[in-house]
Write the structure tokens for this entry.
Amino acid sequence: MRVPQVSNSDTLELKMTPMIDVVFLLLVFFVWTSSFELPEFDLPSSLAEPPIGSAEATSEIPRIEKFDEIVVRLKWQSDGTQIQLNGQQVERIGELSDRLAEIISLGVQPPVIVDPDEQVTMDLAVQVYDAARAAGADRVLFAAKPE
């Protein structure tokens, strides 16, 4: 008796072109649906601060948070120019330089934006610019007024 021979002369061929098309479609889908925005920084909150009436709140210096950008506002007043660092009043340029150095020592390099009023003289704006550069800020920018 003869034993039947099992021979498969047909080889299985795997087509690569449709697989490559599917991979490229998936790649395009994931690139278009992904987000390339930076996550937002944690914003300072009044919930973490102690109540205003407590004794600790008056004796402590407010702690410095990580900033997205630092805005130094120069407001013109009849008795002199007022300097504000992110809304907090600063008495002199030396104190401004110290606060900026503390912020930069946190390890972040946020841009420092100098925003003078129209009546503020340029020499004070340049002094603030120099103080920010002396504190270690890499990017010091001047704010532009919209026309």
Strands lie at 70-77, 80-85, 88-90, 112-116, 140-142. The longest strand covers residues 70-77. The helical segments are 17-33, 55-59, 93-104, 122-135.
